[in-house]
Amino acid sequence: MNPVHTALAPYGWKADWEERFQAAEKDAAWVPARVLWLRGDSWRVLTPGGEGPAVLAGRLRHLAESPSDLPAVGDWVLVADATGEDLRVIHQVLPRQSKLSRRASGDRDIEQVMAANVDLAFVVCGLDGDFNLRRLERYAEALAGAGVRPVILLTKADLHPDPESAVAATNGALPDVAVHALSVLATEGTAILGEYLAAGQTVVLLGSSGAGKSTLLNYLSEAVVQKTQGVRTDDSRGRHTTTHRELFRLPTGALIIDSPGIRELQLWGSSPGGSVFPDIDALAESCRFADCRHEAEPGCAILAALTEGSLDSGRHASWEKLRRERAYAARVEDANLSRAEQQRWKAITKSMRGFSKE
User: Given this model, what pLDDT does residue 249 score?
Assistant: First the structure.
């Protein structure tokens, strides 16, 4: 490893990232950096020379086929380094090890990368009225598709009459996902978190506003790094206190990305990383017809399991909804890729015409 780059090791720089850096087509003056936060059109990065603000190079912005090609929090990028508060210039994004994406809010089908190069996700859900199994399934499915390991944290356990019943219900819906009930304010059940926070590990915090993400972050940081607010008394919904995504380094050496609260996570793209419904997926594969829609076809294993009661109807409904949503998102992604390829070849053809005229 380049000795200069060892300054980035506390923020996750390892031998495989050094290999990606060496393989990249780059200017000799560029150095690696990690994106610490993103606010609107402003970035802050950490380079071997220190931390500071950054802007995008015009070529990077011009060549980006979608907003998802631009740097996200957690990305490793190549920059023209500077010192002090001088602006760094981001020229390239190194290939991502993982990315957690969702369909951006609004009517357009646009991918929004929430965090990049993440190893683990803490899905935070409050037991004060925020608890929702279907939403937890959605988070877990999105993370499985991104190849990121989910860990569900049921916070505010001191406000629930029987937190272990909530753990059991969650384990029933997501048998392959670790689930823990805890109370940060009462410091109950928090010791288990140390098992997930090894030095160099990158964790992202996900959950609704008011679920306790900022309180948890402050506890893990052993300092107040994010403001906190109470939830609304009428429906237990939180008020948005975190307004941007930011990467913090914990005393354990682990890295954690805090993000604004999300109540509705719309899936994006295909699911190369896997699924949190392996039992239902296995049933679907054993149907008589390969293109079974699981509606009224003869020999449908899923319908048979529903009839005999071995498959929970609520869990099946969640699987079916997420399956259709994932299929739609994959079609949109394929259409976007096809459109980008057409535009690329149009540009090549146009340039060749100009060459032939000359």
Answer: 95
